[in-house]
Amino acid sequence: MKQLRSKHNINASGTDMPDPITDFSQLVTEYKVHERLVSKLLQQGYTEPTPIQMQIWPLMLRGREILASAPTGSGKTAAFLLPMIHQLKSPRALGFRALVVSPTRELAEQTYRECSVLCEDTGLKVHLIDKVDKVISKFGPGSSQKFDILITTPNRLVFILMAEETMINLSNIEWLIVDECDRLFEGGKRGFKGQLSTIYMACSGLKVKRALFSATQSQNLHNWCRDNLSDLAHVNVGPRNT
Ligand code: ADP
Ligand code: ADP
Ligand code: MG
What we know:
The chain is an alpha/beta fold. It has helices at 2-7, 25-31, 35-43, 51-61, 76-88, 105-119, 135-139, 154-163, 181-186, 191-202, 219-228, and strands at residues 10-13, 66-69, 98-101, 126-128, 149-152, 175-178, 209-214, 233-237. The longest helix is centred in the middle third of the chain and has 15 residues, at 105-119.
């Protein structure tokens, strides 16, 4: 398996590192992912997992906490969306069970679109926070609680959590995903760390797992993950031809 990793420029460290998967069919045979979810990847013309997907899928499907970096364009979005959607399976009236934090509105919207496509046959409800003042009526205690996945920028979410904690219940979150986490770190010394701890603390359930993704590696980020995540799996995919 070392060979398989080095062939695809995958560096992985952590305990009990599962073997990378190289074929979509292994998602179904080895990890019991529903064929209909896997078929959404095929429908988009994908023929094989990208290197980051090869290693992240088996890790997240085993519920491991993750810090991962891979170059821009290497398929990180599907790397976290597929196992996240697999775990949620079907709608439950528990409020949000997965949260994806993206640094910009554009990215959040892009992730929302990709997530909506993958969720098409699951009945799972995906939401994007747009207008802060609509949040209470949409997601608050009086609403129908029919939503499973929340995609948002950190500013908006933290603003809402600070304004009134009960507006959005994050206590049933099972996956907290932070995308482009290196860019969030850039936003100033106080910025990201403070925002992330507010979000992290609001995701207060016992089942919560966290996974952070970025294009570049950073020591700051690694330190934060080492201190705050349990049994961290650290995965890095190098650029091709190096
Ligand atoms: P990143 O977040 O790493 O920058 P994206 O998740 O935005 O990359 O994916 C980049 C492009 O690759 C997207 O157009 C996406 O649809 C496509 N893609 C993702 N996974 C695969 C795959 N397994 N095979 C082919 N294309 C893929
Ligand atoms: P982002 O795109 O990261 O959500 P924006 O520049 O769109 O950031 O601004 C969102 C921020 O503006 C919120 O985090 C909050 O601090 C502030 N904000 C947004 N809506 C309101 C509002 N209705 N009342 C007060 N502050 C608001
Ligand atoms: Mg991305």
